From TrEMBL:
It comes from Acetobacter farinalis. Keywords: NAD, NADP, Nucleotide-binding, Translocase. It is an enzyme of class 7 (translocase). The lineage of its organism: Bacteria, Pseudomonadati, Pseudomonadota, Alphaproteobacteria, Acetobacterales. Its EC number is 7.1.1.1. Residues 4-137 form the Alanine dehydrogenase/pyridine nucleotide transhydrogenase N-terminal domain. This is proton-translocating NAD(P)(+) transhydrogenase. The transhydrogenation between NADH and NADP is coupled to respiration and ATP hydrolysis and functions as a proton pump across the membrane.
Amino acid sequence: LKIVTLKETEAGERRVALVPDVAARLVKLGCGLALEAGAGVASSYLDSAYKDVSIETSQRDMVASADIVLAVNPPSLSAISAMKPGAILISLFYGRNHPELVKALRDGKISCFAMEQVPRISRAQAMDVLSSQATLAGYYAVLLGTTHMQKILPMMTTAVGSLRAAQVLVMGLGVAGLQALATAHRLGAVTEGYDVRPETKEEAHSLGAKFVDTGVDATGQGGYARELTEQEKAKVRAVLTDHIARADLIVTTAAVPGRRAPRLIDAEQIAKMKQGAVIVDMAAEGGGNCEGTKAGETVQVGPAMIVGPVNLPSCLAEQASELYAKNVLNLLQQIIKDGKISLDMTDEVIAKTLLTHDGKITNDGVRQVVE
Ligand code: NAD
């Protein structure tokens, strides 16, 4: 069984889908491995670190001979076109955003596992790329925020008096938000968290943070949030405005599946913030939680600086790649039986993660958009 790994081409992408430790595990499973030359360099894994892996310079030849292709982002049309019918592709895909590539997968009879579709169930946690990457992103968002602040996070006693601890507010307490709270707490900040799912209150407390209770419960399906009604938005806003005004650093992470990122902070609230306050809007790529956020930019809006980072996991590429590759290995262990590919279509994880298979688009939502 030949498994090959592509070099990422997206601007700003530093991650790689295979790391040397995971390669060694796959070699032990009896797989033949190939890596596009230099694929791991940006995440600190030199070609020489991959033992028993063939380093290839022709992507086309490498891909044409592969049974399984690994990538972080959707590969190019030319890479997909070079794959043999029946081969497997494993990558993040977000099919709705790439209709032409999805058609190429369908027409080429490629079985594509879109890693963002792994169901959020306990059994699939070890394959959950969204969680592994969000964990690192949440940590990094706080560090990024501190580099734009003119204050430190912890209380500090000096010969000329004490410096007060900074106030950090995290809005949206999913995987990334909880990690942001934990990181700010470790660095000595006074922390507050807010979410529309009430069960996050206990999680915030366990991380040493206060919970801002707005009295709104917007728990949706599958443990995700739903969109708020206009009435609920007004109620939330009334409670949050003071907390926003008091914060030195705010990290926003709110997302609702399939929708534009909800607006949590508006221009009027920003105008009331402290001079020098910083907002890191982790939802920047999905439209932003904050009025004025620009994806990929840092902008000054009145008293506050708004940072709109894109692809935060890539900033921690070495470990983001390590976790990604381990998530992929756990999926591979589900689909490789006795050295052969065996797809059990009755398995919920396999069925839900597959985007295309056997000449069909198997994800209903993506099929409706693409066909
Ligand atoms: P996400 O990225 O979809 O959203 C981030 C957070 O934003 C969520 O906590 C959500 O409640 C919150 N949010 C949405 N609208 C908001 C608003 N208007 N105001 C404030 N907050 C708002 O979330 P995620 O990190 O992917 O996690 C979502 C859920 O999935 C959580 O319950 C998490 O525990 C669960 N989960 C389960 C598994 C598993 O069982 N394998 C794995 C990962 C996550």
